[in-house]
Amino acid sequence: MNDSDFSSSPTFDPPAKEIAIVGAGISGLAAAYHLLELSQEHSQPVKLTIFDAAKRIGGAFGTEQIGDYRIERGADSFVTNKPWGVRLCERLGIQDQLISTNPEFRRALILHRGKPVETPAGFQLLGPTELWPMLKSPLLSLPGKLRVAQEMFVRRKASNEDESLASFVRRRFGQELLDNIVQPMVGGIYTSDPERLSLQATLPRFLELEARYGSVIRGLRKLKQGSSPASGARYGLFVTPAQGMQQLLNSLVEKIEESATIELKTKVQGIRPDADRIQIEFAEAPPRCFDGVVLALPAYLSASLLESANPDLSSSLSEIDYASSAIVVSGHQLDDIEHPLDAFGLVIPHRERRRILAVSFLSRKFPDRAPVGKVVLRTFVGGAMQPGEVEFSDDQIMDTVRIELRSVLGVQGTPDFMKIVRYDRAMPQYEVGHLQRVERIRSQMDDLQGVALAGNAFVGVGIPDCIRSGEEAAEKVWGDSFQPEQ
Description:
There is one protein chain. This protein is α+β, with helices and mostly antiparallel strands. It has 16 helices and 22 strands. 34% of the residues lie in helices and 23% in strands. Strand 13 and strand 14 form a beta hairpin. The longest helix is centred in the C-terminal third of the chain and has 19 residues, at 463-481. The chain is globular.
């Protein structure tokens, strides 16, 4: 379905079902768009209303123009090997606007003893595809390198019990690889403590490699053919709209607004069944009833709204922990930076005792993000392992970032701009046992017909995962709302 005009659908005989979506982030918008698609596909009318307590759609997510700089406040791209993001762009008619990362700089840096060092070529998040670049790298000592080489002789785990990422890497590769390479790389994705992060819920393919080949290295070698030689993350898989991530958001909103109502600055404070419908209670307005409701919110907010309707479900949702972080975006003259910035970014091991987690070089990843001779940096602060760093004021955090950038990259002079974006309790922590917890939540949801959950708290934290979550929630509510009359 391309460039669908939902407003031009034929007149329907049956009365329209009323469906509400609480939360106007990417998950909620994906749910809304898919509900409109389902309405057109099945010739069933839907009266759709989207509520959000914020004053802007998309929350902190989106692109912003600062002079001649084009910056990202949130995610700067998404992966293509999870198809839901690309498929949505195709249905919105913007797939031809997607651009890939700059091949010239497809490498990652890791801070080691205060200096940026390139990640060994072929290293993929938890393990190497080839040993020679690892043996040449200064990131590990000789004993550390020998321990990595021994991975091919480590016995596979006998049980299927969930395991922390730290336990898995320590068991197969040793402590040094965990501390010096894996922790900062994975921490840059999940802002998590690897000692608590569930491997099943985050990077299950490494468990599958161990189970199938008896060795992660042997498994990665088998899969290596045709892969990119880039170090770190598989950057060739990342794409973004040419005009920035806001282009995806704007395209969604444009389609949705043709047939739905969006009510911002509207705080929902409760959800409860009311006969065969769902009643939504508002902080500053009378309650309203709907045939279906999608809660596209952080798990703890959904838990609060469902406390009276389903206490057990509310309790399970409350078990999902969250970390807070901040991104400081800044624009600089390239001549003011000692490091050549010949990569996509720098991640920083916790053992380096710095006050920042990572620095992304946005204008090295994608074109037209900074004027000629300048660069956009995005510095990440906080997360599960440094929660205290986001408790400072905006000015204090920006001062910290200036000091750290000067120390690790040699950034001098006065930035053209600095902007801080806070993500308070925004990143769910997929701790050991997460998948079992999600299964329990899904089972408890069976008792709450007409309500669905969406967001990054359940099956993935990336943009495609959020889109998938929203679309699956839309299908559940659609199925509940249009069940045949008994």
